Amino acid sequence: MKVIGLSVDSTGDHEAWADDIEETQGARPNYPIIGDDDFSVSKLYGMLPAETSGDAKSRTPADNQTVRNVFVIGPDKKVKLMLVYPMTTGRNFDEVLRVIDSLQLTANHKVATPVNWKQGEDVIIAGSVNNDQAKELFGEWKSPKPYIRIVPQPN
To answer: When comparing pLDDT for 115 and 56, which is higher?
Structure first.
């Protein structure tokens, strides 16, 4: 997994921002941050309206509030997850990591993860797997409903 940031601030402003985070939060961002001061990437991904223009420094945080997005992009270059947070709400990195764990697991095994699933918990055999294939792949399973086949998380 690789993390990259995108900001409508200039790359020079990112250093001061990283210093502030380190001073107030005790940790410094340790990933690259792209400066999108012409808004081209932000507009391309629908994070700002197409008519957005001008100097990023002249815009207020309220103008740029929709830039608070998290994207998870798979190896196939397709967006797998998009979370949009209001400016007043911090991002939940535990949830982002949980989703990435699920995406990696379900890409490598024929399973789905249930609501509130966490690493190491039981999973559901994917609906695309018939019972004969499921028995061969997973052995026995618990089934509270015929269409829900629960097994331990594969390694």
So the answer is: 115
- Is 139's pLDDT higher than 90? yes
In 10 A of CB 109, how many CB atoms? 18
Residue with the two structure tokens 């990259």: 4
C-alpha dihedral sign at 39, 21, 89, 97: positive
DSSP state of 71: E
Gap between the Cα atoms of 85 and 44, Å rounded = 18
| Alpha carbon distance 141, 149 (integer Å) | 6
Nearest of 131, 99, 133 to residue 113 by alpha carbon: 99
Determine the length of the chain: 155
HEC string for 98-153: HHHHHHHHHHHCCEECCCCCCCCCCEEECCCCCHHHHHHHHCCCEEEECCEEEECC
pLDDT at 129: 97
Contact 125, 110 (CB under 8 A): yes
